[in-house]
Protein backbone atom coordinates (compact mmCIF):
# COMPACT_ATOMS: atom_id res chain seq x y z
CA UNK A 1 0.00 0.00 0.00
CA UNK A 2 1.37 3.39 -0.95
CA UNK A 3 2.11 5.83 1.81
CA UNK A 4 -0.55 8.32 0.80
CA UNK A 5 -3.19 5.58 1.21
CA UNK A 6 -2.20 4.83 4.78
CA UNK A 7 -4.48 5.83 7.63
CA UNK A 8 -3.06 8.85 9.44
CA UNK A 9 -2.57 8.32 13.18
CA UNK A 10 -2.07 10.80 16.03
CA UNK A 11 -0.67 9.27 19.24
CA UNK A 12 -1.37 11.30 22.39
CA UNK A 13 0.45 10.66 25.69
CA UNK A 14 2.57 8.43 23.45
CA UNK A 15 5.43 7.63 25.83
CA UNK A 16 8.09 5.51 24.15
CA UNK A 17 5.60 4.40 21.51
CA UNK A 18 4.40 0.95 22.56
CA UNK A 19 0.93 1.59 21.17
CA UNK A 20 2.32 3.15 18.01
CA UNK A 21 4.56 0.11 17.54
CA UNK A 22 1.46 -2.05 17.18
CA UNK A 23 0.17 0.20 14.41
CA UNK A 24 3.34 1.22 12.60
CA UNK A 25 5.67 -1.76 12.93
CA UNK A 26 5.47 -5.13 11.19
CA UNK A 27 2.61 -5.98 8.87
CA UNK A 28 0.38 -3.26 10.27
CA UNK A 29 2.85 -0.66 9.02
CA UNK A 30 1.37 -1.02 5.54
CA UNK A 31 -1.94 0.33 6.82
CA UNK A 32 -0.98 3.13 9.21
CA UNK A 33 1.41 6.09 9.41
CA UNK A 34 2.11 8.24 12.46
CA UNK A 35 1.82 11.95 11.70
CA UNK A 36 1.98 13.41 15.22
CA UNK A 37 2.85 12.19 18.71
CA UNK A 38 2.77 14.23 21.93
CA UNK A 39 4.12 13.54 25.41
CA UNK A 40 5.54 15.73 28.17
CA UNK A 41 8.43 13.29 28.83
CA UNK A 42 11.37 14.53 26.74
CA UNK A 43 13.31 11.27 27.03
CA UNK A 44 10.28 9.29 25.90
CA UNK A 45 9.85 11.57 22.89
CA UNK A 46 13.51 11.06 21.99
CA UNK A 47 12.83 7.32 22.05
CA UNK A 48 9.66 7.75 20.02
CA UNK A 49 11.41 9.78 17.34
CA UNK A 50 14.28 7.30 17.14
CA UNK A 51 11.78 4.59 16.24
CA UNK A 52 9.06 6.38 14.28
CA UNK A 53 10.55 9.53 12.74
CA UNK A 54 10.86 13.13 13.84
CA UNK A 55 7.25 14.10 14.42
CA UNK A 56 7.13 13.45 18.17
CA UNK A 57 6.64 16.63 20.22
CA UNK A 58 7.61 17.26 23.84
CA UNK A 59 4.79 19.35 25.30
CA UNK A 60 1.96 19.54 27.78
CA UNK A 61 -1.00 18.67 25.61
CA UNK A 62 -3.34 21.36 26.96
CA UNK A 63 -0.72 24.05 26.25
CA UNK A 64 0.22 22.61 22.84
CA UNK A 65 -3.35 22.53 21.60
CA UNK A 66 -3.76 26.24 22.36
CA UNK A 67 -0.83 27.29 20.16
CA UNK A 68 -0.76 24.78 17.30
CA UNK A 69 -2.84 23.74 14.35
CA UNK A 70 -4.03 20.16 14.57
CA UNK A 71 -3.33 18.15 11.40
CA UNK A 72 -6.09 16.10 9.72
CA UNK A 73 -6.06 12.49 10.90
CA UNK A 74 -8.06 9.31 10.52
CA UNK A 75 -7.38 7.80 13.95
CA UNK A 76 -6.34 9.13 17.35
CA UNK A 77 -4.76 6.68 19.80
CA UNK A 78 -3.35 6.89 23.31
CA UNK A 79 -4.39 7.07 26.93
CA UNK A 80 -4.58 10.07 29.26
CA UNK A 81 -2.29 9.53 32.27
CA UNK A 82 -3.83 6.83 34.42
CA UNK A 83 -2.75 8.04 37.87
CA UNK A 84 -6.03 9.85 38.40
CA UNK A 85 -8.00 6.65 37.78
CA UNK A 86 -5.62 4.14 39.35
CA UNK A 87 -6.54 2.32 42.56
CA UNK A 88 -2.89 2.79 43.56
CA UNK A 89 -3.56 6.51 43.87
CA UNK A 90 -5.05 7.02 47.33
CA UNK A 91 -5.62 10.76 46.81
CA UNK A 92 -7.56 10.68 43.56
CA UNK A 93 -10.07 13.43 44.36
CA UNK A 94 -9.22 16.65 42.58
CA UNK A 95 -6.30 15.13 40.65
CA UNK A 96 -5.74 17.58 37.76
CA UNK A 97 -4.59 14.72 35.54
CA UNK A 98 -8.19 13.52 35.32
CA UNK A 99 -8.96 16.49 33.09
CA UNK A 100 -6.43 15.55 30.42
CA UNK A 101 -9.06 13.51 28.60
CA UNK A 102 -10.59 16.83 27.56
CA UNK A 103 -7.77 18.04 25.25
CA UNK A 104 -7.53 14.42 24.08
CA UNK A 105 -11.15 14.65 22.92
CA UNK A 106 -10.55 18.16 21.52
CA UNK A 107 -7.83 16.79 19.22
CA UNK A 108 -10.10 13.95 18.11
CA UNK A 109 -12.70 16.53 17.17
CA UNK A 110 -10.41 19.05 15.48
CA UNK A 111 -8.43 16.43 13.56
CA UNK A 112 -11.57 15.11 11.89
CA UNK A 113 -10.73 11.56 12.99
CA UNK A 114 -13.36 8.90 12.43
CA UNK A 115 -12.02 6.64 15.18
CA UNK A 116 -10.19 6.80 18.51
CA UNK A 117 -8.57 4.14 20.68
CA UNK A 118 -8.22 4.98 24.37
CA UNK A 119 -6.09 2.76 26.61
CA UNK A 120 -6.07 2.96 30.39
CA UNK A 121 -6.15 1.13 33.71
CA UNK A 122 -9.19 -0.98 34.64
CA UNK A 123 -10.34 1.66 37.15
CA UNK A 124 -11.26 3.96 34.27
CA UNK A 125 -14.47 2.09 33.50
CA UNK A 126 -15.95 2.62 36.97
CA UNK A 127 -14.83 6.26 37.26
CA UNK A 128 -16.98 9.36 36.95
CA UNK A 129 -14.55 10.56 34.30
CA UNK A 130 -15.44 7.69 31.98
CA UNK A 131 -19.08 8.71 32.09
CA UNK A 132 -17.98 12.22 31.11
CA UNK A 133 -15.75 10.83 28.35
CA UNK A 134 -18.63 8.76 26.96
CA UNK A 135 -20.92 11.78 27.04
CA UNK A 136 -18.40 13.95 25.20
CA UNK A 137 -17.78 11.20 22.66
CA UNK A 138 -21.52 10.94 21.97
CA UNK A 139 -21.74 14.71 21.54
CA UNK A 140 -19.02 14.44 18.87
CA UNK A 141 -20.95 11.69 17.09
CA UNK A 142 -18.92 8.70 18.33
CA UNK A 143 -20.26 5.31 19.38
CA UNK A 144 -18.22 3.26 21.85
CA UNK A 145 -17.69 -0.39 20.92
CA UNK A 146 -18.09 -2.38 24.14
CA UNK A 147 -15.22 -0.88 26.23
CA UNK A 148 -13.50 -3.86 27.82
CA UNK A 149 -10.87 -4.87 30.34
CA UNK A 150 -8.38 -7.10 28.50
CA UNK A 151 -5.52 -9.20 29.83
CA UNK A 152 -2.45 -8.79 27.64
CA UNK A 153 -1.44 -12.41 28.36
CA UNK A 154 -4.53 -13.47 26.38
CA UNK A 155 -2.98 -11.78 23.34
CA UNK A 156 0.49 -13.24 23.38
CA UNK A 157 2.32 -11.00 25.86
CA UNK A 158 4.32 -12.87 28.54
CA UNK A 159 2.75 -10.66 31.21
CA UNK A 160 -0.61 -10.61 33.00
CA UNK A 161 -1.33 -6.92 32.53
CA UNK A 162 -4.98 -5.86 32.54
CA UNK A 163 -5.93 -2.72 30.62
CA UNK A 164 -9.09 -1.03 29.41
CA UNK A 165 -9.45 -0.51 25.68
CA UNK A 166 -12.23 1.83 24.54
CA UNK A 167 -12.72 2.24 20.80
CA UNK A 168 -14.95 5.00 19.51
CA UNK A 169 -16.15 5.16 15.90
CA UNK A 170 -17.98 8.02 14.22
CA UNK A 171 -21.38 6.54 13.41
CA UNK A 172 -21.84 8.82 10.39
CA UNK A 173 -18.74 7.26 8.78
CA UNK A 174 -19.70 3.60 9.24
CA UNK A 175 -22.46 1.21 8.36
CA UNK A 176 -23.31 0.29 11.95
CA UNK A 177 -24.86 -3.06 11.01
CA UNK A 178 -22.75 -6.19 11.32
CA UNK A 179 -19.65 -4.43 12.60
CA UNK A 180 -16.75 -6.66 13.68
CA UNK A 181 -17.22 -7.59 17.33
CA UNK A 182 -15.01 -6.07 20.01
CA UNK A 183 -12.92 -7.27 21.77
CA UNK A 184 -10.94 -9.38 19.31
CA UNK A 185 -10.70 -13.09 20.05
CA UNK A 186 -7.77 -14.05 22.34
CA UNK A 187 -4.76 -15.75 20.81
CA UNK A 188 -3.68 -17.49 24.03
CA UNK A 189 -5.33 -18.98 27.12
CA UNK A 190 -4.75 -19.39 30.83
CA UNK A 191 -3.57 -22.92 31.78
CA UNK A 192 -6.90 -23.71 33.49
CA UNK A 193 -8.97 -22.75 30.43
CA UNK A 194 -9.91 -25.59 28.09
CA UNK A 195 -9.49 -24.64 24.43
CA UNK A 196 -7.29 -25.29 21.43
CA UNK A 197 -5.41 -22.03 21.95
CA UNK A 198 -1.77 -22.13 23.09
CA UNK A 199 -1.15 -21.51 26.78
CA UNK A 200 -0.01 -18.07 27.92
CA UNK A 201 3.57 -17.27 27.03
CA UNK A 202 5.95 -17.77 29.92
CA UNK A 203 8.77 -15.78 31.47
CA UNK A 204 11.15 -18.48 30.23
CA UNK A 205 10.01 -18.05 26.62
CA UNK A 206 10.82 -14.35 26.85
CA UNK A 207 14.08 -14.18 28.79
CA UNK A 208 15.36 -17.75 29.20
CA UNK A 209 18.03 -17.35 26.52
CA UNK A 210 19.73 -14.34 28.09
CA UNK A 211 23.10 -14.80 29.85
CA UNK A 212 23.86 -13.39 33.26
CA UNK A 213 23.95 -9.58 33.15
CA UNK A 214 27.20 -7.64 33.08
CA UNK A 215 27.84 -4.26 34.69
CA UNK A 216 25.45 -1.84 36.37
CA UNK A 217 24.62 0.65 33.61
CA UNK A 218 23.65 0.93 29.95
CA UNK A 219 26.36 -0.62 27.78
CA UNK A 220 27.24 1.28 24.61
CA UNK A 221 29.97 -1.21 23.74
CA UNK A 222 27.61 -4.07 22.88
CA UNK A 223 24.62 -4.54 20.61
CA UNK A 224 21.08 -5.40 21.72
CA UNK A 225 19.95 -7.29 23.65
CA UNK A 226 23.00 -6.99 25.91
CA UNK A 227 23.08 -3.18 25.90
CA UNK A 228 20.21 -3.03 28.39
CA UNK A 229 21.05 -6.30 30.13
CA UNK A 230 22.86 -4.95 33.18
CA UNK A 231 22.49 -5.50 36.90
CA UNK A 232 22.72 -3.56 40.14
CA UNK A 233 25.13 -3.44 43.08
CA UNK A 234 23.14 -4.93 45.96
CA UNK A 235 24.35 -4.82 49.52
CA UNK A 236 25.39 -8.01 51.27
CA UNK A 237 22.11 -7.95 53.19
CA UNK A 238 20.08 -7.57 50.00
CA UNK A 239 21.86 -10.58 48.50
CA UNK A 240 21.06 -12.64 51.58
CA UNK A 241 17.42 -11.59 51.26
CA UNK A 242 17.32 -12.60 47.59
CA UNK A 243 18.73 -16.04 48.46
CA UNK A 244 16.03 -16.58 51.09
CA UNK A 245 13.20 -16.31 48.53
CA UNK A 246 12.44 -19.49 46.52
CA UNK A 247 11.00 -19.52 43.00
CA UNK A 248 7.49 -18.08 43.20
CA UNK A 249 8.13 -16.99 46.79
CA UNK A 250 7.74 -13.52 48.30
CA UNK A 251 8.36 -11.47 51.41
CA UNK A 252 6.56 -14.01 53.59
CA UNK A 253 9.07 -16.66 52.56
CA UNK A 254 11.83 -14.23 53.43
CA UNK A 255 10.26 -13.80 56.86
CA UNK A 256 9.93 -17.57 57.37
CA UNK A 257 13.44 -18.34 56.18
CA UNK A 258 15.41 -15.33 57.47
CA UNK A 259 13.46 -13.40 60.06
CA UNK A 260 16.71 -11.80 61.19
CA UNK A 261 17.12 -9.84 57.93
CA UNK A 262 13.44 -9.14 57.22
CA UNK A 263 12.56 -5.41 57.37
CA UNK A 264 10.61 -4.61 60.55
CA UNK A 265 7.80 -2.96 58.59
CA UNK A 266 7.12 -6.25 56.77
CA UNK A 267 7.12 -8.23 60.02
CA UNK A 268 4.48 -5.91 61.43
CA UNK A 269 2.39 -6.11 58.25
CA UNK A 270 1.02 -9.65 58.44
CA UNK A 271 -1.29 -9.54 55.41
CA UNK A 272 -1.38 -8.19 51.85
CA UNK A 273 1.48 -7.50 49.51
CA UNK A 274 2.04 -11.09 48.33
CA UNK A 275 3.99 -9.87 45.30
CA UNK A 276 6.39 -7.70 47.30
CA UNK A 277 9.93 -9.06 47.13
CA UNK A 278 8.51 -11.85 45.01
CA UNK A 279 10.35 -14.13 42.62
CA UNK A 280 8.99 -14.81 39.13
CA UNK A 281 8.09 -18.30 37.89
CA UNK A 282 9.77 -19.62 34.75
CA UNK A 283 6.61 -21.34 33.51
CA UNK A 284 4.16 -18.45 34.04
CA UNK A 285 3.83 -14.97 32.56
CA UNK A 286 5.25 -12.15 34.63
CA UNK A 287 3.14 -9.87 36.77
CA UNK A 288 2.51 -6.32 35.56
CA UNK A 289 5.81 -4.60 34.79
CA UNK A 290 5.81 -1.13 36.38
CA UNK A 291 8.31 1.69 36.24
CA UNK A 292 10.46 0.51 39.18
CA UNK A 293 10.79 -3.14 38.19
CA UNK A 294 14.48 -2.98 39.16
CA UNK A 295 13.49 -2.70 42.85
CA UNK A 296 12.33 -6.08 44.27
CA UNK A 297 10.68 -4.35 47.20
CA UNK A 298 8.20 -2.83 44.72
CA UNK A 299 6.81 -6.13 43.43
CA UNK A 300 7.46 -9.62 42.05
CA UNK A 301 10.58 -8.62 40.16
CA UNK A 302 13.23 -11.10 41.31
CA UNK A 303 14.66 -13.30 38.56
CA UNK A 304 13.27 -16.87 38.68
CA UNK A 305 16.53 -18.51 39.76
CA UNK A 306 19.27 -15.87 39.87
CA UNK A 307 19.66 -13.78 43.01
CA UNK A 308 18.89 -10.39 41.51
CA UNK A 309 16.02 -8.25 40.16
CA UNK A 310 15.21 -8.44 36.46
CA UNK A 311 17.20 -6.24 34.09
CA UNK A 312 15.95 -3.52 31.76
CA UNK A 313 16.24 -5.90 28.80
CA UNK A 314 14.30 -8.59 30.60
CA UNK A 315 11.59 -6.08 31.50
CA UNK A 316 11.44 -4.85 27.90
CA UNK A 317 11.06 -8.41 26.64
CA UNK A 318 8.37 -9.17 29.21
CA UNK A 319 6.59 -6.12 27.78
CA UNK A 320 7.07 -7.73 24.31
CA UNK A 321 9.37 -5.01 22.96
CA UNK A 322 11.62 -6.45 20.25
CA UNK A 323 15.36 -6.20 20.87
CA UNK A 324 15.78 -3.78 17.96
CA UNK A 325 13.42 -1.20 19.51
CA UNK A 326 15.63 1.78 20.41
CA UNK A 327 15.42 3.19 23.94
CA UNK A 328 17.10 6.53 24.72
CA UNK A 329 17.75 8.18 28.07
CA UNK A 330 19.21 7.31 31.44
CA UNK A 331 18.50 3.90 32.95
CA UNK A 332 15.83 5.46 35.20
CA UNK A 333 14.20 7.22 32.25
CA UNK A 334 14.23 4.04 30.19
CA UNK A 335 12.72 2.04 33.06
CA UNK A 336 9.90 4.59 33.22
CA UNK A 337 9.36 4.30 29.46
CA UNK A 338 9.19 0.50 29.66
CA UNK A 339 6.85 0.38 32.65
CA UNK A 340 4.45 2.99 31.25
CA UNK A 341 4.20 1.47 27.78
CA UNK A 342 1.48 -0.50 26.05
CA UNK A 343 2.97 -3.91 25.19
CA UNK A 344 3.59 -3.82 21.40
CA UNK A 345 2.28 -7.35 20.74
CA UNK A 346 -0.98 -6.44 22.47
CA UNK A 347 -1.07 -3.16 20.52
CA UNK A 348 -0.66 -5.15 17.30
CA UNK A 349 -3.81 -7.14 18.11
CA UNK A 350 -5.69 -3.87 18.61
CA UNK A 351 -4.27 -2.50 15.35
CA UNK A 352 -5.39 -5.63 13.50
CA UNK A 353 -8.93 -5.10 14.80
CA UNK A 354 -8.80 -1.45 13.72
CA UNK A 355 -7.65 -2.59 10.26
CA UNK A 356 -10.70 -4.86 10.10
CA UNK A 357 -12.96 -1.96 11.05
CA UNK A 358 -11.45 0.28 8.38
CA UNK A 359 -11.71 -2.48 5.78
CA UNK A 360 -15.33 -3.01 6.80
CA UNK A 361 -15.93 0.71 6.39
CA UNK A 362 -14.37 0.66 2.93
CA UNK A 363 -16.38 -2.37 1.81
CA UNK A 364 -19.69 -1.56 3.46
CA UNK A 365 -19.73 2.19 3.89
CA UNK A 366 -19.23 3.47 0.36
CA UNK A 367 -22.79 4.69 0.14
CA UNK A 368 -22.52 6.44 3.51
CA UNK A 369 -19.20 8.02 2.53
CA UNK A 370 -20.62 9.25 -0.77
CA UNK A 371 -23.59 10.75 1.00
CA UNK A 372 -21.39 12.33 3.68
CA UNK A 373 -18.79 13.85 1.37
CA UNK A 374 -20.62 14.17 -1.93
CA UNK A 375 -18.10 11.90 -3.67
CA UNK A 376 -17.54 8.17 -4.02
CA UNK A 377 -15.50 6.45 -1.30
Structure characterization notes:
With 377 residues, this protein is α/β, with parallel strands linked by helices. 32% of the residues lie in helices and 11% in strands. The chain folds into 2 domains: 3-188 and 343-373, Vaccinia Virus protein VP39 (Rossmann fold); 203-340, Alpha-Beta Complex (DNA Methylase, Chain A, domain 2). The chain has helices spanning 18-24, 42-52, 61-67, 101-111, 128-139, 203-207, 236-243, 251-257, 264-268, 312-318, 331-340, 344-364, 366-373; strands at 7-12, 32-39, 56-58, 75-78, 115-120, 142-144, 148-151, 162-170. Strand 4 (75-78), helix 4 (101-111) and strand 5 form a beta-alpha-beta unit. The model is unreliable at 86-90 (pLDDT under 50).
How helical, in percent, are the residues?
Answer: 25-40%
Q: How are helices and strands ordered from N to C?
A: EHEHEHEHEHEEEHHHHHHHH
Please state roughly what percent of the residues sit in beta strands, choosing from under 5%, 5-15%, 15-25%, 25-35%, 35-45% or over 45%: 5-15%
- What class would the helix/strand composition place it in? alpha/beta
Number of helical segments with 4 or more residues: 13
In short:
This protein has helices spanning 18-24, 42-52, 61-67, 101-111, 128-139, 203-207, 236-243, 251-257, 264-268, 312-318, 331-340, 344-364, 366-373; strands at residues 7-12, 32-39, 56-58, 75-78, 115-120, 142-144, 148-151, 162-170. It has 377 residues and is of the alpha/beta class.
Strand and helix layout:
Blueprint: E1 7-12, H1 18-24, E2 32-39, H2 42-52, E3 56-58, H3 61-67, E4 75-78, H4 101-111, E5 115-120, H5 128-139, E6 142-144, E7 148-151, E8 162-170, H6 203-207, H7 236-243, H8 251-257, H9 264-268, H10 312-318, H11 331-340, H12 344-364, H13 366-373
Parallel strand pairs: 1-2, 1-4, 2-3, 4-5
Antiparallel strand pairs: 5-8, 6-8, 7-8
Helix pairs in contact: 1-12
